[in-house]
Amino acid sequence: MRVNSVEDLCTLISSKITWGRGEDPQQLTADTPLLEMGLLDSLAIMEIVSALDKEHGLALPDGEVVAANFRTPKALWTLIENLPAGAAK
């Protein structure tokens, strides 16, 4: 799977979230408030960063792995779209 859209990114993020017992995995949208809803913790964020790098060839600069870029899938997608041309392997 390539990450070609914010919808693809939502699918990737959803696969890295540890849903609570008895909690139904939700369909994420571009505007889902990931941090506000407590859906992401530091481990999930690092798994997303790792998956983007290893599976999709998108290396996020360390300085960009900050809470503001993980507030919503759309925020992370904006970062990905604005990566310098050399960031994609």
From TrEMBL:
Residues 4-84 form the Carrier domain. PROSITE patterns: CARRIER. SUPFAM superfamilies: ACP-like. Gene3D superfamilies: ACP-like. It comes from the Bacteria. InterPro entries: ACP-like_sf, PP-bd_ACP. This is Carrier domain-containing protein.
